[in-house]
Design brief:
The protein is α/β, with parallel strands linked by helices. It is 37% helix and 20% strand. It is built from 9 helices and 11 strands. The longest helix is centred in the C-terminal third of the chain and has 32 residues. It is globular, with a radius of gyration of 20 Å.
Length: 308
């Protein structure tokens, strides 16, 4: 079946629905847009599964898309790790736009050899980020996605045997906001603090600077601890993954730098925040999940197109 319409990526996570359109697919110049991608995030309320509180997402999404796409037909290509939101969004979009508008991706759609015990259980967002990263870094990468959770994964080239790049799995840890909330919820005396780039954070020029250690007051100590935990995990695992990849693949086949580390790429909502605290070389690439979605949408549209 041929999928028609401008491809729109939907990355449905635990805290937001992110929509993304490539400027190229619109076929016109968009003023004030410097990126190749046009994105918009729609926040999900704190009570997961309460669709009544989040029902405006579809209205807001279509209200953003219609003028952007000049009311042309669209097709949604979807990555979801949050069924309590994605299912009502799908139903509402199909009621308004018709069947066939929703194309949900699974692990079987991603051109990776998934070298883990249970491939079906791997979050589709992790696989799409890894796939997109291989397009930027074909010799392999440590792929960090910093959302509600932080995932730190390894992807390497196929090697001498050829085939798809290899997703080796990785690590999962609580994200910045989840760690802040856990400390406040699990203790009596620690305050609920906001990450330094959060709109509710205390306004201070010092919040935009690297944190000094040791911290001299409680809120700064929490922020220092949370960011140090995440950045420290990335730095340690980048070294461990590099050693694993070099041993398994040979350092000549992967992108191991002079310091013996494979390339590190960071994406997700807290990428810039974490980047400021990292002490290893790395690249920030925004919208990796959406880039992966739109790449697969393009491939599938070509595969399903009728011959001329």
């Amino acid at each position: 079946m041929t999928v028609r319409g401008i491809p729109v990526a939907l990355d449905i996570g635990n805290s937001a629905v992110k929509a993304c359109v490539s400027k190229q697919s619109l076929g016109r110049k968009i003023e004030r847009e410097t990126s190749d991608w046009i994105t918009k995030s729609f926040a999900i309320g704190p009570q997961h599964g309460d669709w009544g509180r989040d029902a405006s997402i579809v209205t807001d999404l279509l209200g953003w898309l219609r003028p952007l796409c000049n009311d042309r037909e669209v097709a949604f290509w979807v990555s979801t790790v949050n069924r309590s939101i994605s299912e009502p969004v799908r139903v509402e979009l199909e009621q308004q736009l018709g069947k066939g508008v929703w194309n949900e991706l699974t692990y079987q759609d991603v051109p990776l050899h998934i070298d883990v015990q249970f491939p079906k259980r791997v979050g589709i967002d992790r696989l799409l980020s890894a796939h997109a990263a291989t397009r930027h870094l074909p010799r392999g990468a440590v792929v960090v996605d910093s959302g509600s959770a932080v995932t730190i994964d390894l992807v390497t080239p196929a090697g001498e045997l050829g085939g798809d790049p290899i997703f080796h799995g990785g690590a999962i840890m609580p994200g910045v906001r989840m760690q802040h909330a856990a400390l406040a919820g699990g203790t009596e005396n620690l305050p609920r603090t906001a990450p330094p780039n959060d709109s509710t954070a205390v306004s201070s020029d010092s919040m935009q600077q690297p944190f000094s250690a040791p911290a001299r007051e409680t809120e700064a100590a929490i922020r220092l601890g949370v960011l140090s935990a995440i950045s420290g995990a990335i730095e340690r695992l980048a070294g461990d993954y590099s050693a694993f990849a070099a041993n398994r693949m040979g350092s000549h086949e992967i992108g191991v730098s002079g310091g013996g580390k494979i390339a590190v790429v960071i994406s997700g909502g807290d990428a810039e925040l974490i980047s400021r605290d990292l002490r290893i070389s790395h690249i920030v690439k925004h919208n990796l999940v959406c880039q992966g979605i739109l790449d697969l949408a393009g491939r599938k549209s070509l595969d399903s197109a009728s011959p001329l």
